[in-house]
Structures are given as structure tokens and as C-alpha cells.
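Reminder to self: C-alpha cells first, then the designed residues, so the page reads top to bottom the way the pipeline ran.
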């Protein structure tokens, strides 16, 4: 069965589609967030779907954007996009559902395999960092407070220059 690519649009920093294919992928794999009749995608979700051959993104003039040009545009919008995307892609390829967590004060929230968005809560609040980035104890403490206040475990993902990602989970324990 051949399925059509999702036809999406990039306007500013917003990527969205109102296609039947977008609705179907949202229902089956939870890519995007539904707002009204449209599905809005995070930058990481959109690039991932383009790489997977499931989406074609057009600019405001309805001109196709190549994968390379899309990466350039997204890195212009967010200087840390490459690191964030490496982590997003690694987790999605491992079968986790990864959603934005900006309203929680983090980059991503991550659901355990087999869990459902809407029925279950994310287990982790995720902060991706580059191996060259310095993380102070103050930064670590602030990230840990965010995780604790949202009743989630803290997950720090360190992406290296070779494209590998290492994960460190921080849990609260009661003595």
C-alpha cells in the first residue's frame, strides 16, 4: 500500500498540515498536535518525517523546501536545533514518543514505550545538551526542580559530535 506524503507548510517557525495523511499519522503514531482542523508539528517532528519520506514541506510561496534547506532554516530559528534533533531522532527510532515540553520548562517530554498520550503521563522531562556544552550545578539543580515539580524523572541526553547520544536519568528517592 503506497501512502501519499503529508503536504505541510512552513510559515515563520510554524509547520502545519490539514491533509488526511497528517490526520492519519497523528491518530496512529502521535506525530504533531491537533489544533482545530490542522496538525502542527515541532521542528524535530517535521524534519524526522521529511527524512523518513513521509512529509514534503513547502514555504509560504508554496515552493518545495529540500531536506538540506529545511535543516538550515531550522538551525537559523534555533541555534541548538542540531543537538535537540539528534536526541529526538534517537529516541523516536528506539520507539519512544517524544513531544515538546516548553510549557513545563523543558525541551521534551518522553513517554515510555506502549504508553498513550492523553491516557498516560510522560515518564521523563528531557534536556538535550551537546558534549561541548557546560552544565553547571546550578543548571543541573534547576533542571532537577523542573522534573520534580512536574512529577517526572529528569533525563539528560548528551549528544556527541559523532552523532551518539548518552542518557542519564535522575530519580528522586525517599530514604
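Designed residues (175 positions):
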Amino acid at each position: 500500500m503506497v501512502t501519499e506524503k503529508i503536504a505541510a507548510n512552513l510559515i515563520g517557525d510554524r509547520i502545519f498540515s490539514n491533509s488526511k495523511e497528517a490526520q492519519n499519522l497523528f491518530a496512529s503514531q502521535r506525530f504533531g498536535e491537533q489544533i482545530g482542523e490542522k496538525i502542527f508539528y515541532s521542528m524535530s517532528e517535521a524534519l524526522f518525517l521529511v527524512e523518513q519520506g513521509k512529509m514534503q514541506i513547502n514555504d509560504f510561496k508554496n515552493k518545495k523546501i529540500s531536506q538540506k534547506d529545511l535543516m538550515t532554516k531550522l538551525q537559523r530559528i534555533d541555534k541548538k536545533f542540531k543537538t535537540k534533533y539528534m536526541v529526538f531522532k534517537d529516541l523516536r527510532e528506539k520507539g519512544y514518543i517524544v513531544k515538546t515540553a516548553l510549557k513545563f520548562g523543558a525541551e521534551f517530554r518522553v513517554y515510555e514505550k506502549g504508553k498513550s498520550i492523553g491516557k498516560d503521563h510522560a515518564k521523563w522531562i528531557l534536556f538535550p545538551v551537546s558534549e561541548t556544552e557546560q552544565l553547571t550545578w546550578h543548571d543541573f539543580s534547576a533542571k532537577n526542580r523542573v522534573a520534580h515539580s512536574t512529577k517526572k524523572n529528569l533525563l539528560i541526553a548528551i549528544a556527541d559530535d559523532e552523532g551518539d547520544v548518552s542518557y542519564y536519568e535522575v530519580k528522586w528517592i525517599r530514604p
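Strands lie at 6-11, 14-17, 33-35, 38-41, 55-58, 97-100, 108-111, 124-130, 153-159, 165-170.
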